[in-house]
Amino acid sequence: MEARDKDEKLLSLRFPARPDQLQRVRKAVRKHVKACGCSAESTGDIVLAVDEVCQNIIRHAYRGEEGAIELEIEQRGEDLVFSLRDFAPETDPRKVKPRDLDDVRPGGIGTHLIRKVMDDAGFVPPPSGGGNLFRMVKRIG
Amino acid sequence: MRHAVSEEGARLVVRLEGEVDLENSPKAREVLLEAVGGDRAVLVDLSAVTYIDSSGVASLVEAFQVAKRRSITFALVSVNPAALRVLQLARLDKVFTIHESLPEEPDGDS
Predict the structure, then answer these.
(1) Can you tell me the distance from the alpha carbon of B99 to that of B76, in angstroms, rounded to the nearest whole number?
(2) CA-based Rg of chain B, rounded to a whole angstrom?
(3) Which element (helix H / strand E) includes A110?
(4) d(CA A49, CA A116)
(5) Is B50's Cβ below 8 Å from some Cβ in A?
(6) Which pTM was predicted?
(7) ipTM
(8) Cβ–Cβ contacts within 10 Å for residue B49, how many?
C-alpha cells in the first residue's frame, strides 16, 4: 500500500437525499474511516454522525422534496474532515442546535449526537451555487 | 431490519434485528407502539441490533413514554454494544431499564 499524502481526498460521493440511500453511505464511510486507523468506537461514532447529518438534510433542509447530497471525506494530517453539502434553501444555523437531554422525549437528539462524537461540527459558507455546507472534523484515534 | 414479537408468559418480547435507521424506524415505531398498546409488560431485545440512529432511538423513547403513561413495564434486554453506545451518548442508558438478559418471570405470572 502506498504511503498517504498528508492531505488526501478519501471519498467523494453524490447521492439522492432519501432514507433508502443511507445504508450504502454508512457502508462507504465505515470502510474509508476504518482504513485510516480509527478505532472501532471512533469508526462507529463517525458513521453515526455522518448519518445524522444526512438525516437532518433529508428531513429539515429538503423537507421531503427531492434533492442531492454531496459527501466528501478528506484526511488533513491527523484530522478527518467530513463535508456534507445540500442544495436546499439556506438553513438558519441558529435553528440547528442540540436540545436539553434532561427533557426526555422522542426526537431532536441527532444534533446532540453529532456534536458529542465529533471534535468540531458546524455550518460553513457554501460554495457558489447556494445550498448548505456542514463540516465536521474528527481527530484520528 | 427484521422484527419478531413473541408472547412469553405474561410478557411480550419484541426482538429487533439489524439496522434501525431512518428508512425502517417507522416500522420499528409501529411494532413498538402496538406492543405497548396491550396490557402485557414489554421487553425489547436489542441483542441483534447492529446499528441504531436517532430516529430508532426516538421510537424507543416514544414507546417507553406510552408504556409509562399506561403503567406498563417497558425494558430493554441484551442491548448490543453498538446500540448501547448510542443510548449512552444520548444519556438514555440511565432512563431506560436495561437487563443484561431476559429476566425471570415473577412467580405466578405464567
Answers:
(1) 6
(2) 13
(3) helix A110-117
(4) 9
(5) no
(6) 0.92
(7) 0.91
(8) 25
